[in-house]
Specification:
Number of strands: 0
Shape: globular
Strand content: under 5%
Oligomer: single chain
Order of helices and strands: HHHH
Number of helices: 4
Structural class: mainly alpha
Length: 83
């Protein structure tokens, strides 16, 4: 897990601005849920935006979607183990 956490953290814009990374990595970073969560937290804490603002809402929706997807994969994996 640690080997995937650090690259995801670098690509999410927490440690390095997204505008400064190469274009190919930028598109990869948009697929990561950490990018959207970091943008939502930055918008809440630095800009004082609420849940109804677009960046915050999109960040919440993306992270929630990833959570549901990974939970469904886990349930399916556990069901296949029981058989």
């Amino acid at each position: 897990a640690l080997s995937s956490f650090f690259p995801a953290l670098l690509l999410s814009g927490v440690l390095w601005p997204l505008q400064a990374i190469p274009r190919g990595l930028y598109y990869i970073s948009l697929a990561l849920p950490t990018t959207w969560a970091a943008e939502a937290m930055r918008s809440i804490m630095a800009r004082g935006w609420g849940m109804l603002d677009q960046r915050v809402y999109i960040g919440f929706a993306v992270v929630s979607g990833w959570t549901v997807l990974l939970f469904a994969c886990s349930v399916r994996g556990l069901k296949s183990r029981k058989k």
